[in-house]
């Protein structure tokens, strides 16, 4: 590859100072330069379509077509210009999928609750012979089939090569790939190419998928002067050598790129071969670049190298004629697996990386590989008394393992259903009751089909571990929503939810207690209440829709138990959306991953030990001019409250001007005034926010506010501080990025 215009525009990469123009080994864009490298610039007039998975013209499995290729063939042969939808039932498919050039726009989507439920996997190496290839995949193709020429060409080769190693190969425009895992499982000890997905066409969309492999996992665009645009969203891509490569114009949005360490001691994420006449190659925005733990010490994951396609040595490179890859990485999280000073490496031809840090540089200079990052705030320890920052040594004591204290969250499966709502159970609560009444210690799975459920769900203390998951393709498809305010009377509450409970039901005592109150209070305003350990909540939207003009509590989810997992869910409300842990000296651990949590006042609160990983916290401005995200009431004897990692804190645009989204305030539970507070006895919330993106809705100088008791915020910026000194607030940050950091 030629020196790539690699503009690393990481508005908030937490691992290095992002001050323009950067250095010759790590150039950084100015805000003015960055304005020319946005999503709209790359897509060049194309607005990706909304993707629908609500219909199926062709179904694979479940009584439909026996192979995906057969369904593709049928859709193409049907002709026309209307989009055809191919539903692939949950399962594992050991086959290739070829979509030749056609005017029929196709959508292929997995029917499982997540991409991991519908897997297309095969082991194909570029080195295998045509005859071996033919034995592996030939049964899928017959003369006259739309993709037969693709198969025949590959089968005729002595060694099939990179393109023919593709498990899923797209040559048609406007293809949509949704909710699938596509894997090339080839794993040898060398560096053989083994492509999971290849796209050689325009206007391709990939959403909510997983692309798995080692070398050359995703081949995006075939290079040359013809523009081939793709939009890849909310997708996980893993590999080791050049695992995203090609010459297309591709926007990656909300994606995770994960470098594997099981074959090699180093990895390269991007290997573009953008034609020198093309200004736009790859744009990576609002994404995460990470890797296996082995790279945390070596830092041998490189952002990119230039794929000098067709060149056998560096001296064959001709600036302006040879391919010169182009990449911009911006507003993304880059974990500590990347070398901070020299994150790019030598091109495939052996050509040395060359970056332009000149103040008057030409960003399309054919001689230079530009890796540019947009400048952002830096977080330097020990910080200030209004915003303390941890040192790397201090941060080592506040990791996921420290908070989970010996617990490893279980792998979550949604492939089985012991109880299905709507099939014998008219309500979610009825299915929960049945699962608990069945007894035992084996995990029970409750599937909730797509739809909206206006009810509460109570899981009382039980030894039966429960997994409750939505059966839709995304959390938004399965919604549990009710309006319950803490100021409701017991009578009003009883009218709202009483039909769900009968004497003798497992959760009847919870209901009976709430119904007896004059005002039900915060806990009884909960829509989804967990009092049992080991509960898993997956792929659901849980909403408390109560929205008054005051500050009444209205909880969407409450957990008062240990080892609770919430994954790929949306928790919606206003005040007190998520109550995570009931406080006190008993440790209640939770792991909340890949979730969206919205609210305004103290919308994540409680006394548990909770790890939030890969989550988005969104401050809503509909009721108030300010918002507070976290309000912990951690007991002073507990060192670990809330850990927020690899996440995003953002809010409605009106907060961009006011900057009145506060990261946290202490919930001084049971303390009526600041004079009643006793250090070491009263609750003193604990929060660490690290390696996350904090948008410009948060004040950079004063991101914390007064406690619920009226106690003024007090941060400890001493270089010799005790991080558990309860005379100070225990709110800390480390390695965050973004305009609010």
Outline the structure in words.
This protein is of the alpha/beta class. The protein has 14 helices and 52 strands. The strands form seven sheets. The chain has a ten-stranded parallel sheet. It has a ten-stranded parallel sheet with strand order 28-29-32-35-38-41-44-47-50-52. The chain has an eight-stranded parallel sheet with strand order 4-7-10-13-16-19-22-25, with no helix packed on it. It is globular. The active site is at residues 242, 602. Residues 61-135, 159-308, 512-668 form the Pectinesterase catalytic domain.
Topology (elements, then pairings):
Layout: E1 5-9, H1 31-34, H2 39-43, E2 58-60, H3 68-78, E3 84-88, E4 91-93, E5 97-99, E6 106-110, E7 118-122, H4 130-137, H5 148-155, H6 161-164, E8 168-170, E9 176-178, E10 181-184, E11 197-199, E12 204-207, E13 210-212, E14 218-220, E15 229-233, E16 236-239, E17 244-246, E18 249-253, E19 256-259, E20 267-272, E21 282-285, E22 288-291, H7 295-298, E23 301-304, E24 326-330, E25 333-334, E26 383-384, E27 387-388, H8 392-395, H9 400-404, E28 419-420, H10 428-438, E29 444-448, E30 451-453, E31 457-459, E32 466-470, E33 478-482, H11 490-497, H12 508-515, H13 521-524, E34 528-530, E35 536-538, E36 541-544, E37 557-559, E38 564-567, E39 570-572, E40 578-580, E41 589-593, E42 596-599, E43 604-606, E44 609-613, E45 616-619, E46 627-632, E47 642-645, E48 648-651, H14 655-658, E49 661-664, E50 686-690, E51 693-694, E52 730-734
Parallel strand pairs: 1-24, 2-3, 3-6, 4-7, 5-8, 6-9, 7-10, 8-11, 9-12, 10-13, 11-14, 12-15, 13-16, 14-17, 15-18, 16-19, 17-20, 18-21, 19-22, 20-23, 21-24, 22-25, 28-29, 29-32, 30-33, 31-34, 32-35, 33-36, 34-37, 35-38, 36-39, 37-40, 38-41, 39-42, 40-43, 41-44, 42-45, 43-46, 44-47, 45-48, ...
Antiparallel strand pairs: 26-27
Enzyme class: hydrolase
Pfam families: Pectinesterase (PF01095)
InterPro entries: Pectin_lyas_fold, Pectin_lyase_fold/virulence, Pectinesterase_Asp_AS, Pectinesterase_cat
């Amino acid at each position: 590859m030629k020196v790539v215009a690699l503009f690393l525009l990481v508005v908030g990469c937490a691992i290095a100072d992002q001050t323009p123009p950067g250095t010759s080994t790590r150039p950084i864009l100015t805000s003015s330069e960055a304005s020319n490298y946005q999503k709209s610039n790359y897509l060049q007039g194309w607005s990706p379509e909304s993707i629908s998975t609500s219909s199926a013209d062709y179904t694979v499995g479940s009584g439909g077509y026996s192979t995906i290729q057969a369904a593709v063939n049928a859709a193409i042969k049907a002709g026309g210009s209307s989009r055809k939808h191919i539903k692939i039932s949950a399962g594992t498919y050991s086959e290739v999928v070829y979509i030749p050039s056609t005017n029929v726009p196709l959508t292929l989507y997995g029917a499982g609750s997540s991409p991991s439920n519908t897997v297309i996997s095969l082991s194909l190496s570029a080195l295998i012979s045509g005859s071996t290839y033919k034995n592996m995949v030939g049964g899928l193709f017959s003369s006259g089939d739309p993709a037969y020429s693709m198969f025949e060409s590959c089968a005729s080769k002595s060694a099939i090569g990179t393109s023919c190693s593709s498990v899923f190969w797209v040559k048609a425009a406007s293809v949509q790939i949704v909710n699938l895992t596509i894997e090339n499982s080839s794993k040898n000890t060398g560096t053989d190419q083994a492509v999971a997905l290849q796209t050689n066409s325009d206007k391709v969309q990939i959403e909510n998928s997983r692309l798995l492999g080692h070398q050359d996992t995703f081949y995006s665009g075939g290079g040359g002067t013809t523009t081939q645009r793709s939009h890849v969203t909310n997708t996980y891509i893993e590999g080791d050598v050049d695992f995203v490569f090609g010459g297309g114009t591709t926007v990656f949005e909300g994606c995770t790129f994960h470098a594997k360490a099981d074959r090699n001691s180093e990895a390269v994420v991007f290997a573009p071969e953008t034609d020198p006449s093309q200004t736009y190659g790859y744009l990576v925005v609002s994404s995460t670049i990470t890797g296996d733990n082995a790279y945390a010490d070596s830092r041998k994951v490189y952002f990119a190298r230039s794929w000098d396609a067709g060149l056998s040595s560096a001296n064959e490179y001709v600036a302006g004629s040879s391919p010169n890859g182009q990449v911009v990485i911006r507003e993304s999280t880059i974990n500590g697996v990347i070398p901070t000073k020299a994150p790019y490496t030598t091109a495939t031809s052996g050509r040395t990386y060359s970056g332009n840090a000149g103040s008057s540089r030409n960003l399309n200079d054919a001689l230079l590989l530009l890796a540019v990052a947009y400048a952002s705030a830096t977080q330097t320890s020990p910080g200030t008394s209004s915003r303390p920052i941890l040192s790397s040594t201090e941060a080592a004591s506040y990791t996921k393992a420290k908070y989970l204290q010996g617990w490893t969250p279980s792998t979550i499966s949604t492939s089985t259903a012991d109880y299905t709502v709507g099939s014998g159970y008219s309500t979610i609560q009825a299915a929960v009751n049945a699962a608990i009444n069945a007894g035992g210690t084996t995990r029970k799975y409750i599937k909730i089909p797509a739809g909206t459920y206006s009810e509460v769900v109570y899981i009382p203390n039980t030894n039966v571990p429960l997994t409750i998951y939505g059966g839709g393709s995304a959390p938004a498809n399965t919604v549990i929503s009710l309006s319950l305010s803490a100021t409701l009377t017991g009578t009003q509450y009883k009218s709202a939810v009483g039909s769900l409970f009968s004497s003798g039901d497992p959760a009847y005592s919870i209901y009976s207690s709430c119904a007896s109150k004059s005002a039900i209070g915060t806990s009884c305003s909960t829509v989804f209440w967990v009092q049992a350990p080991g509960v898993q909540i997956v792929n659901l939207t849980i909403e408390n829709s109560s929205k008054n003009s005051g500050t009444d509590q209205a909880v969407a989810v409450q957990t008062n138990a240990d080892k609770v997992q919430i994954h790929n869910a949306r928790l919606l409300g206003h005040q007190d959306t998520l109550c995570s842990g009931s406080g006190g000296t008993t440790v209640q651990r939770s792991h909340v991953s890949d979730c969206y949590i919205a609210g305004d006042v103290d919308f994540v609160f409680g006394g548990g030990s909770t790890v939030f990983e890969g989550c988005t916290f969104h401050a809503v401005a509909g009721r108030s001019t300010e918002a507070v995200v976290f309000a912990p009431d951690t007991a002073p004897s507990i060192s670990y409250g809330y850990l927020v990692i690899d996440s995003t804190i953002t809010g409605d645009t009106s907060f961009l001007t006011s900057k009145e989204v506060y990261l946290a305030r202490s919930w001084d539970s049971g303390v009526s005034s600041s004079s009643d507070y006793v250090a070491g006895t009263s609750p003193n919330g604990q929060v660490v926010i690290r390696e996350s993106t904090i948008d410009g809705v948060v004040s950079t100088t004063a991101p914390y506010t007064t406690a619920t008791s009226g106690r003024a915020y007090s941060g400890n910026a001493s270089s010799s501080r005790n991080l558990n000194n309860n005379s100070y607030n225990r709110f800390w940050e480390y390695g965050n990025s973004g305009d609010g950091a």
